[in-house]
TrEMBL record:
<keyword id="KW-0325">Glycoprotein</keyword>
<dbReference type="GO" id="GO:0017177">
    <property type="term" value="C:glucosidase II complex"/>
</dbReference>
<dbReference type="InterPro" id="IPR048395">
    <property type="entry name" value="Glyco_hydro_31_C"/>
</dbReference>
<dbReference type="Pfam" id="PF01055">
    <property type="entry name" value="Glyco_hydro_31_2nd"/>
</dbReference>
<keyword id="KW-0378">Hydrolase</keyword>
<feature type="domain" description="DUF5110">
    <location>
        <begin position="847"/>
        <end position="898"/>
    </location>
</feature>
<dbReference type="InterPro" id="IPR033403">
    <property type="entry name" value="DUF5110"/>
</dbReference>
<dbReference type="InterPro" id="IPR011013">
    <property type="entry name" value="Gal_mutarotase_sf_dom"/>
</dbReference>
<feature type="domain" description="Glycosyl hydrolase family 31 C-terminal">
    <location>
        <begin position="736"/>
        <end position="824"/>
    </location>
</feature>
<dbReference type="Pfam" id="PF17137">
    <property type="entry name" value="DUF5110"/>
</dbReference>
<feature type="signal peptide">
    <location>
        <begin position="1"/>
        <end position="30"/>
    </location>
</feature>
<feature type="domain" description="Glycoside hydrolase family 31 N-terminal">
    <location>
        <begin position="97"/>
        <end position="342"/>
    </location>
</feature>
<dbReference type="InterPro" id="IPR000322">
    <property type="entry name" value="Glyco_hydro_31_TIM"/>
</dbReference>
<dbReference type="InterPro" id="IPR030458">
    <property type="entry name" value="Glyco_hydro_31_AS"/>
</dbReference>
<dbReference type="GO" id="GO:0030246">
    <property type="term" value="F:carbohydrate binding"/>
</dbReference>
<feature type="region of interest" description="Disordered">
    <location>
        <begin position="209"/>
        <end position="251"/>
    </location>
</feature>
<comment type="similarity">
    <text>Belongs to the glycosyl hydrolase 31 family.</text>
</comment>
Amino acid sequence: MYGFKASSQMWTSFVLFLAAVFCLFTPAWMVKHENFKTCDQSGFCKRNRAYADSALEKSSWKAPYNLEPSSIKFSNGQLSGTVLKTVGDSSETVRLPLTVSFLESGTARISLDEEKRQKGDITLRHDSKARKERYNEADKWAIVGGLAPSKGAALGSDADAGTTVVRYGPAGKFEAIITHSPFGVEFKRDGSTHIKVNNRGLLNMEHWRPKVDKEKKEGEEETPAEENKDPALDESTWWDESFGGNTDSKPRGPECIGLDISFPYYEHVFGIPEHASPLSLKETRGGDGSYSEPYRLYNADVFEYELDSPMTLYGAIPFMQAHKKNSTVGVFWLNGAETWVDVTKAKETANPLSLGIGSTKTTHTHWYSESGILDLFVFLGPTPKDIVKSYGELTGYSQLPQSFAIAYHQCRWNYVTDEDVMDVDRKFDKAKIPYDVIWLDIEYTEGKKYFTWDPLTFPNPEKMHKHLDQRERKLVAIIDPHIKNEGNYPVVDELKKQDLAVHNKDGNIYEGWCWPGSSHWIDCFNPTAITWWKGLFKYSKFIGTFSNTFIWNDMNEPSVFNGPETTMPKDNLHHGNWEHRDVHNINGMTFHNATYEAMLERGKKGELSRPFVLTRSFFPGSQRVGAMWTGDNEAKWDHLAISIPMILNQGISGFPFSGADVGGFFGNPSKELLTRWYQAGTFYPFFRGHAHIDTRRREPYLAGEPYSGIITQALRLRYQLLPAWYTAFHEAHTQGSPIIRPNYYVHPSDEKGFAIDDQLYIGGTGLLAKPVVKEGADSVDIYIADDEPYYDYFDYTIYSGPGHKTIKAPLEKIPLLMQGGHIIPRRDRPRRSSGLMRYDPFTLVMVLGKDGSATGELYLDDGETFDYQQGAYIHRQFLFDGKTNFLSSVDIAAEKGSKGQKYLKTMKDVRVEKVIVVGAPKEWKDKSSVVVSEEGAKESQRKREVPFVWHEGAKGQADWAVVRDPKVEIGKGWRIDFS
């Protein structure tokens, strides 16, 4: 859904209401840039850029921040001290408490605060009720582990008078060299420098100072603000700031923080979603192919967003990775306020330590946030997997969803009645098209009052749910954070009575406008509000919902139609009297968290199942509780194309359960575009078709032939590979790994592939896809990074790398390759929904590598409950040794819990029904059988022969073979002898 953008004038309530209603019935328009700030219109962004310009232009520049040597202490893996900021040319200094923590994981953390604000030794303007401290609770929401101090961290003995050295990390291979004057930190791994903090001297912590009103003498002319003024010290937006008809009162005055972070000899940096831009981040200071604006992180309702832009979108993850040949490092800027990031790259002279393993460019980044403390985490890798794992240890790994959640979802704004829902469901069955979930947008409610059903259009939600449940299908209903302000609505009455809503700057309940008109916003920073919210989802309260009802959180940036930049005023107040400016980017996650907790508690004791909650707004940690999607895209080819780097970026940034609206939210796709989008969506971790209320219906069965048939085949491919997808989700849940992976992640030494972002690998399966994203295209050039053989998934055509290879891709063809050396688990029997596949047999596709070997994994559990945490799962590794010609299934599970054996009994009849060998050796040509042995089988069944058929491939295609129905249990150890 999209938010109506308010004009720059203060509207009356009546006009606002008409405007909100009007946007429901008129075509959408392009993003209105005038509704969103540029850096020049954001006071602190403009000041920090000017500060950087001033510092970098001066050859004599020395940053005014110095670590006081006498204050330094080191204990239990943590260094503490005081950084002194010299104010201008005066002798005045500002004390900034510093801690540098070295963690057992090998991560380092730098925190810098401001003593006066920390102690509350300041005066707020306007008699504000806001907190005096810098916001210091972002870690409370984002961090869930990984903070154990390093036992081996120790002060080095080679420090000179101006530095302090700490050795830490695995085998003491990491070093932090802390320079005292000016303060800075250089991070080394194996003796080579990988990250420099404040190397360019752009640290800038705006300290508290009282506002001094200058008296104007009689006859004195006022000096224009632009004249004789250092733009880095421009006071025009220190004390208040206006935009879009709203004035931010700024009771604490200027309080931004800025810092430069450099990555020596790293040309490519990735991350900091969400932006509709390439995976490898562009420079932001102008020039050919570069942006002129910094990347902005300020969660906002931006509909029909523009592409190839650093403009802010719906979510913010301030986590960046830098990559060069065989080395990845990263930083995590933990701050919930509006944040901008500049990226520049500079050519370097050759460094002997980096020859052959790095670029000739260094990437410089400049980070600045409006408020809060400086809280920076530094990761030294050295691999992409190490980086995402370390980040995941801090912020939590991705949720392991129910199995239905990774199948196909059917949505639009809006299915108009309960009969409409059931009719769509029947038509999917009639067309034999699989799907698992159907969604309801805001029109299911009575007058846009959440937790209600429209009595005229959804009079019988129980019948609708039962109808879906018969086919193992689910329903998702939208619940947004804005609560309609209307009399005789119990939800808003309770919200106001218990004072659980966000307040305005005066301490009264904040009123704004959204879909229902006048609305209030629940404050999920308030523990009491969360408790109340959880109660609303109980079956006895949200009448008409059942165990197959799940939830969609939209508009949670929050979107406010008449607010500045379509969101809340920054001087609104949340629980604890923290200003909204401090927590804006965290806000959506708190609502998402509360809904997840509500879904956990809605049922009876003993009926616990994993929640599914989709969110639009997100922050580090959101991945723990659900999925996200890329918001209000358009039915255009370039929006299809950009979805792939956007989702890849989400994956490497710790939030891999992501997707884009298939078909495009706005507009009506051509049948070719719709078909190609379904083929691409097959490779989204979150796979949902969705459309705006003004678009034509576009359910797959309406496309007509050949399009409906081709879309059906794409959907069946997704369902066929669900075992591989679920295994990839489990790896994300336990190790933080991306579910779909860019080339640099899989091939970290392949410099030619570092910037490639239009193709992807699925987990660790070796499946390599390059969706068609151009109109009229009948082929694609896919990049192969290694010298393993690659085989077409459908006809086993052989492709040899490295280099670009052309694959024919007529409309009915999905470009999908299998990398040699992998074993891919799948289920080949077409079903109406994933739940009906629960006890289906497996097919193993064994794709032999250049050495004749292959490996693969399968993770399996009940796909619904949390019993897997008590051992109710199967986790097998499949190994084929090209020398012995044995294929074996080995248990790689950890020690099983109390429910392990019980689950294995429920799966005892689930077997492997087929093994397909791609690249089968010609020596097997005359074989007619192979020998199978299985653990625990009866004496007569321990070794048995089963049929084997070898097939010669056509020209350009691989030879392949099939083991027919070996009848081995998926949960047991077994071996197939091909010798």
